[in-house]
Amino acid sequence: MERSRVLGRTPRPLTDEEKAVLREAVGPLLPDMDATGQTLPGIREEAHHDRGEDAVCAWIREPGGRDGPGIEVWLYCSPADQLYYLAEQLQSWAGDVQVDPGRRPWPDCPDHPGSHMLMPDTRDQIAVWCCPQSGRVIAAIGRLA
């Protein structure tokens, strides 16, 4: 915990290997955000927490260049679970940065427009977006149109 507190005050630049892991992990979510008109996050490639060998931690940069919440890429889970956890984090961030009250939740459920957002899940070892009411799979994460 003490190392994480210190990193919160004086973040450590990520290594080249950590940067590559972070970019590869976040990459599939960016097309979904772009295709649905969501603000894309900037990633500040500095560690904000020390999770040891379990995760790569970085910061999300808010629109306008302000630092936002941390993001964590968990390393010792399946690729589907890793993407699921990242989708939850970016979905939470997207909800926090939406200042336009007329804006729909992200990602908006095409089965119930304006009613609720899709929820990330894993099905058959694939990270997917699902309708929380029906449970129907809408698209694989990274393939949301």
Could you walk me through the main structural features you see in this protein, from its secondary elements to its overall organization?
- By secondary structure, the chain is α+β, with helices and mostly antiparallel strands.
- The protein has a domain at 2-101.
- The chain is built from four helices and eight strands; from the N terminus they run H-E-H-H-E-E-E-E-H-E-E-E.
- It has helices at 2-9, 16-26, 29-35, 79-97; strands spanning 12-13, 42-44, 46-47, 55-61, 67-74, 119-123, 126-130, 137-140.
- The strands form three sheets. The chain has a three-stranded antiparallel β-sheet.
- Strand 7 and strand 8 form a beta hairpin.
- The chain starts with a helix and ends in a 5-residue tail after the last strand.
- 25% of the residues are buried.
Keywords summarizing the entry:
three-stranded antiparallel sheet; 145 residues; alpha+beta; single chain
Query: How does the overall form come out from the CA principal axes?
Result: globular
Biggest sheet details: 3 strands, antiparallel
The percent range for strand residues is 15-25%
Estimated radius of gyration: 16 Å
| Low-confidence runs | none
Strand order of the largest sheet: 2-4-5
What series of H and E elements makes up the topology? HEHHEEEEHEEE
Averaged pLDDT, please? Answer: 86
Cα end-to-end separation: 41 Å
Total of helices: 4
- Coarse structural class: alpha+beta
Number of strands: 8
Q: What is the helix content?
A: 25-40%
